[in-house]
Amino acid sequence: MNEPFLLEISYQNKNYELPAAFQRYGFTYRIAVSIADLPYIFEPDEEGQYRVLSENTASQSLPDTELLQAIATKLKKL
């Protein structure tokens, strides 16, 4: 289940192939998605939506929040 895969999304008329991987986390799971070589962790919440956790420092630029929402929407469809 920890096999890496490519997450294909379309955002602002561009196609992206983002490296991703499932990660077991207790009784649930997380999905690590790499955006510009920085990891972002998506995890399901109680309503079945995905929220994003970032371990990146504030000094680094964050990706567009709409891109993160597009990724979360794609993950929900998987």
Can you offer a commentary on this structure?
There is one protein chain. The protein has 78 residues and is of the alpha+beta class. It has one domain. 17% of the residues lie in helices and 51% in strands. It has 1 helix and 5 strands; from the N terminus they run E-E-E-E-E-H. The chain has a 5-stranded antiparallel beta sheet, covered by helices on one side. A hairpin with a 2-residue loop joins strand 1 and strand 2. It is globular, with a radius of gyration of 12 Å. The two termini are 14 Å apart. The mean pLDDT is 88.
Task: Tag the structure with descriptive keywords.
1 helix, single chain, five-stranded antiparallel sheet, globular, alpha+beta, 78 residues
What is the end-to-end distance?
A: 14 Å
Rg to the nearest angstrom?
A: 12 Å
**Biggest β-sheet: strands ordered side by side in the sheet:** 1-2-3-4-5
Question: From the helix content, strand content and strand pairing, which structural class follows?
Answer: alpha+beta
Q: Bin the helical content.
A: 10-25%
Count of helical stretches = 1
Mean pLDDT: 88
Order of helices and strands: EEEEEH
Task: Extract low-pLDDT stretches.
Answer: none
Number of domains: 1
> Quick one: overall form?
globular
Say how many strands there are: 5
Sheet with most strands: 5 strands, antiparallel
Roughly what fraction of the amino acids lie in strands?
over 45%
